[in-house]
Amino acid sequence: MTQTLAILMSGRGSNMAAIADACANAVLDARVTLVISNRPNTAGLSAARQRALQTAVVDHTLFDDRQSFDRALHKTLSAVQPDWIVLAGFMRILTAEFVDLWHGRIINIHPSLLPKYPGLNTHARALAAGDSKAGASVHIVTSELDAGPVIAQVHVPIHPGDTTESLAQRVLDQEHALYIKALQLCIKGLDKPAC
Ligand code: GAR
Question: How far apart are CA 121 and CA 168, in angstroms?
Fold first, then answer.
């Protein structure tokens, strides 16, 4: 049976678009059944609609706290019961309660070589540390931020004169293929024991 993905994002949505296109082109044996944004009117939502994907907005600013936002997110996801919840530039910290409800089925991409630089401003931190390489990691989400088991990583060189923007772009250029490769592993079940 073709496995289903719900993709959660907050903005531009380039990872979402790459994953949706990989599904549409049968590069990935999966189907995107829902794209959720926690912000209205994003480029990512337009990109999802252009692809005729079902979209939903769960606007975090309308909720009093993380728990009530996550409950609304859970309700929206429960309506489609995805096999995998794919965080693609989703800039919200999920509660432990939510993570438990979807245990082992939430995947995230993070723009650093985890365990280095969990959290925000990863590229600025890599440049400030004088690192010679950066990268991205796809991992299973656990209740600890950016700390779950890594499924796949890509390394990217840092060049002299790099800015956060040039480095972010070089990493992003590799993120799409990395995410598709990691999802292929999950879908084939190779990584389920780690989940
Ligand atoms: C990507 O670089 C992704 O790794 C990062 O946000 C960007 C989203 O780009 N995610 C995080 O920082 C999560 N902590 P996109 O909207 O074009 O996919």
Answer: 10
Cis peptide before 115 (omega within 30 of 0): yes
* 109 CA: nearest ligand 1 atom: 4
The atom number, within ligand 1, closest to the CA of 88 reads 18
**Residue 153 maps to a domain:** yes
Summarize pLDDT for 86-100 with one digit per residue, the tens.
Answer: 999 999 999 999 999
Ligand 1: centre distance to CA 130 (Å) = 22
Instruction: Count how many domains the chain has.
Output: 2
Alpha helices per DSSP H over the chain: 14-24, 43-50, 66-78, 96-101, 122-128, 164-187
| Ligand 1 probe mutation, 7, 8, 14, most atoms within 8 A of CB | 14
CATH at 126: 3.40.50.170
Q: Which domain holds residue 166?
A: 108-190
* Mean pLDDT taken over the chain: 96
pLDDT recorded at residue 146: 97
pLDDT digits (tens, 9 = 90+) for 111-147: 999 999 999 999 999 999 999 999 999 999 999 999 9
Residues 5 and 95 in one domain: yes
Q: What is the pLDDT of residues 11-40, one digit of tens each?
A: 999 999 999 999 999 999 999 999 999 999
